[in-house]
Amino acid sequence: MNLTISGHHLEVTQALREYVLNKLSRVIRHFDQVVDVNVLLTVEKQKEKDRRQRAEVTLHVKGREIFCEHSHEDLYAAIDELMDKLDRQVCRHKDRVQNHHHASAKRLDMNAG
User: Fold this and answer.
1) pTM of the entire structure?
2) Do the bridges between strand 2-8 and strand 53-61 make them parallel or antiparallel, or are there none, so unpaired?
3) Alpha-carbon distance 71 to 42, whole Å?
4) pLDDT tens, 86-104?
5) Letter string b/e over residues 56-80, b meaning 16 or more CB atoms within 10 A of that residue's CB
């Protein structure tokens, strides 16, 4: 798995990098077919104080690309919310991949009769 953590208008410190890795490990635990992960942490230059910190992630899995973003006034809170969203999307993708090969209802009716 290739992991890229970059910052826009901010320096990605070691503490931020470890925090993202720690949160990302929860997502990777659910689904191990991740090819590539790109994380972008941004501080937007807006006049309003709230929702200036933005975190976004692009997760490349086999056959699909999953994108998620979240903004918050605190960067760590934005990362938390982002990983929650990403976790839900990865679990949904995993369920779709696993349920893809079930027999259809039409075939079940034919076998029963």
Assistant:
1) 0.79
2) unpaired
3) 9
4) 999 988 888 888 776 655 6
5) bbbbbbeeeebebbbbbeebeebbb
